[in-house]
Design goal:
about 15% strand, about 200 residues, D-Maltodextrin-Binding Protein, domain 2, seven-stranded mixed sheet
């Protein structure tokens, strides 16, 4: 498959995602959804308080109660990250970034690693002991454990971590990964080896 064809298909997938998002009912896009707190399946915790979660993501608490090093991970800027910052951290995304710049200058750490998609957060959390992240509840699979927050499970009345996390359409990163997995890369084209773009 030629490079022009690949570009055309990538553009088509991107257009489909954008048009799909625009055509989805406005209520579905704006409807608040639960944000699930996910940990690795070996984590003995089943519930966490909002303040304890805040302490983990602000670097004030660095271990789980069993002594395992805590490894918080963020989603990159977007509706779920915005909702997490405002609901859990009680600050704007810009204030959160400034907080970690200040911490780095003081030598107190660099902050949670930002990942570009919910699927990456789930994959990392599933594989790293002590990891904790947050994703829209609709993105959770069986590879991770979901914590209740203040004794309430996601989706139940009174669950505290609810926000506008966007539509349930696949994220652009997931569409691109899906496209890359399905389209074979040619070994060579007219005697030239295929290389990185």
């Amino acid at each position: 498959m030629g490079r022009d064809t690949e570009k055309l298909l990538a553009t088509w997938y991107l257009s489909l995602a954008i048009v799909g998002g625009l055509c989805a009912p406005a209520a579905a896009l704006a409807e608040p959804q639960a944000i699930a707190i996910v940990v690795d399946r070996d984590n003995p915790m089943s519930d966490i308080e909002v303040e304890a979660l805040r302490s983990l993501f602000l670097g004030k608490r660095r271990e789980w109660p069993d002594g395992t090093r805590a490894v918080p991970v963020n989603l990159e800027a977007g509706p779920p990250h915005h909702a997490f910052c405002s609901t859990v951290l009680k600050m704007s995304e810009a204030d959160y970034e400034r907080y970690w710049v200040d911490q780095k200058v003081r030598g107190a750490g660099t902050g949670p690693r930002p990942l570009s998609s919910s699927s990456l957060v789930i994959r990392l959390v599933a594989r790293v002991r002590g990891a904790v992240g947050y994703v829209p509840l609709s993105r959770v699979d069986g590879s991770v454990k979901v914590l209740s927050v203040a004794g309430i499970s996601p989706g139940q009345p009174g669950y505290p971590l609810v926000g506008d996390v966007g539509s349930s359409w696949p994220e652009i990163g997931e569409l691109v990964a899906s496209y890359d997995a399905k389209v074979p890369r040619p070994a060579s084209v007219h005697g030239l080896r295929a290389g990185p773009r």
